[in-house]
Specification:
The chain is an alpha/beta fold. Helix content is 38%, strand content 19%. It is globular and about 55 Å long. It binds 2'-O-acetyl adenosine-5-diphosphoribose.
């Protein structure tokens, strides 16, 4: 089936969906200039994930890991939502306007969905605008503006870390529970700009399939779930998503 015909089918499904769950990954922010992880030249090619995105890596070199995140924060502070983020915020307004519900589950830590106006967002991998203490319960939203090279906790003086989920760590419990509920209860599910290989987040796609939701993928390249979803749309999210709302 041609992409145009698939877009037409997906548009009709979207127009009648009442309970939508949407999973987004780094690809949705690519057109905003935010780097992805696993594409050629991606973040995990230049810096090994086990040194940057694990508690062990951070303990071994807090200033080095912070330096990497300062660079990410700088990139994200400059980034603006693209047409895909804007389309999802628009879709949420339409769905809620007709008495439905849209839950936006994002693996992204860039805050661009909120900047675009989405409201019902679950940040299952945390937010890079937030920091937390490595020792006590202190947590703070500091935004994306530059911060001290090695920030320390105002309560206990231990080093602060980015409040994002690293490999081997549990996902934020409330956000994860709500994400699972949304995927089990949805009648339509979109997976956008994610390689669909990082669990448990990728498992949400299988949950939605098992719940008999209509499933649509938007990605520039095939992924392990492309053959499992009802409609796999190949192309940039910033081009395809606005077409689905026309
Ligand atoms: P990846 O870098 O693994 O995958 C990005 C996906 O986006 C790929 O499948 C690309 O083909 C696709 N893509 C790129 N540009 C696109 C565009 N313009 N439109 C649509 N799709 C596009 O990123 P994630 O799947 O988000 O976790 O990675 C998942 C997690 O792994 C991240 O949250 C991060 C990472 O390690 C942690 O750090 C815990």
């Amino acid at each position: 089936m041609s992409n145009d015909r698939k877009i037409h089918r997906a548009r009709r499904l979207l127009a009648s969906a009442r309970r939508l769950a949407v999973l987004t990954g780094a690809g949705i922010s690519a057109e905003s200039g935010v780097a992805t992880f696993r594409q050629p030249g991606g973040l995990w090619e230049a810096a090994p994930a086990d040194q940057i995105a694990t508690a062990e890596g951070f303990t071994a070199d807090p200033p080095g890991v912070w330096q990497w995140y300062h660079e990410r924060r700088r990139e994200m502070a400059a980034a603006r939502p693209n047409a895909a983020h804007v389309a999802l915020a628009d879709l949420e307004r339409r769905v809620t306007g007709r008495g439905g519900e849209l839950t936006l589950i994002t693996q992204n830590v860039d805050g661009l969905h909120a900047k675009a106006g989405s409201r019902n967002i679950l940040h299952v991998h945390g937010c890079l605008a937030d920091v937390r203490c490595t020792h006590c319960e202190f947590r703070q939203r500091v935004g994306m503006e530059p911060i001290e090279d090695l920030p320390t906790c105002p309560r206990c003086q231990a080093v602060l870390r980015p409040d994002v989920v690293w490999f081997g760590e549990p996902l934020p419990a409330d956000a994860w529970r709500s994400a699972v509920q949304a995927c089990e209860a949805c009648d339509m599910f979109l997976t956008i700009g994610t390689s669909a290989i990082v669990y448990p987040a990728a498992g949400l796609i299988e949950l939605a399939i098992d719940a008999d939701a209509k499933t649509v993928e938007i990605n520039v390249a095939p992924t392990p779930v492309s053959g499992l979803v009802d409609i796999a749309l190949q192309g940039p999210a910033g081009e395809i998503l606005p077409k689905l709302l026309q």
